[in-house]
Specification:
alpha+beta, 3 helices, 7 strands
Length: about 130
Amino acid sequence: MIQQKSIELLSGKNLVFLATVMQDGSPQVTPVWANYEDGHILVNTAEGRLKHKNILRDPRVAVSVTSAENPLDTTSIRGTVTEVVPDYEYEHADRLARQYMDCDYPFRRSGERRAILKIRPEKVFVMPPLVPDR
C-alpha cells in the first residue's frame, strides 16, 4: 500500500512528525526519526515518554514526512501501532542515528529503555509532483 516515494522520504535524513492521541482525544505531535522495514514504519522512543504512553492506550497514529531539500516533497500516512518491540541494546536506535547523523546513537541515558513502535500504514497520501506552468 505504501508508495515508493514514501519509502524514499522515510529512508532519508528527513524529520518525521508523529501524531498520537492524548487521553482527552486531543492530538499530540512529536518530531522523531523513523525508517521503513518489512511493510512497517519504525519509530524509536524511550519507554514512558508521552507518545509511548499514548500509543499503549490508543494505537492510532499519523505520520508526516517532508523532504529536507524540497518542502513540497511530502507524504502523510495514517496507521496503527501493531507492536511495541524492546530495543534495550540500542540496535535500532543506532541504525536510525547512522541514517540521520552518520554515527551510533549519541544520546544514551543510564536506565533508559528504548522501544520500537511498529506502525502499519493504512492510508497514504503522497504530494504529486508539481508541473511548472508552460
